[in-house]
Amino acid sequence: MTEKTTAERAYRLLREDIVSGALEPGQKLKIEMLRNRYDIGSGPLREALSRLAGDHLVEILGQRGFIVAPFTAQDAREIGDLRKLVEAEALSLSIPKGDSTWEERVITTFHRLERLETGPAQGVQALAEWERLNHAFHEALVAACPSTWLLRTRASMFKHHERYRRLSRVRTVLTRDIHAEHRALMEAALDKDVVTAQSVIRSHIENTTQAVVQAIEVLKKAG
């Protein structure tokens, strides 16, 4: 395995452990601990950590090493608000241009997500798979958007939002019907109802933001 391939593997493993919460917010990321955890050398791990710092998932503490970036209510609100803006705009441009191929992709990705979300515990026991299917569904909805830069910005915000989505899913599995939200979004998109689709996506993202902010406040009080 080449150094570059090993660094990519280190990045993927570290990122998954951070967004899943296996490595907790604020946790020190000592190279020796990571070497033992992943059986990967120091060089590729440092490269992966630097890359994750660029993703704002890791913080560099000068000469003192690295830590998992903490959760903050402010970050949750800002990322959620920005995602509402770009997601709603991308939908407004995508839906009117969606053709039959676009419709088939929306329906197919929705049904794949539906199978997991209507299973045991709404799929919360398989968060990595849920995230993959959730990503595919939301990508399908905006696939007809003609603005390359809007899609790039949207993709960036979607990626930054992932850690907060996972926390929200765990915290709201018994109180939130996220599948119903996804169905409402699909139906509005297929009906070419841009206004309703935008309203649903804003509410969908806001529900996640509120759940995360509440969870952060509980964790802060417990700490």
Reported for the largest beta sheet, the result is: 2 strands, antiparallel
Give the strand tally: 2
DSSP summary: helix tally? 10
Give the end-to-end Cα distance, rounded to a whole number of Å.
42 Å
What is the H/E string?
Answer: HHHEEHHHHHHH
Helix content: over 70%
Average pLDDT over all residues: 92
Shape call: globular
Give the DSSP E fraction (strand runs of 2 or more residues).
Answer: under 5%
List the strand order in the largest sheet.
1-2
Instruction: Compute the CA-based radius of gyration.
Output: 19 Å
Given as residue ranges, the uncertain stretches (5+ residues, pLDDT < 50) are none
Q: What is the SS-derived class? A: mainly alpha
Can you put this structure into words, describing what you see?
Strands 1-2 form a two-stranded antiparallel sheet. A hairpin with a 5-residue loop joins β1 and β2 (66-68). It is mostly helical and 223 residues long. The protein has helices at residues 3-20, 31-38, 42-54, 73-97, 100-117, 127-142, 148-160, 162-172, 178-190, 194-222; strands spanning 58-60, 66-68. α1 crosses α3 (42-54), α4 packs antiparallel against α7 and α5 (100-117) runs antiparallel to α9.
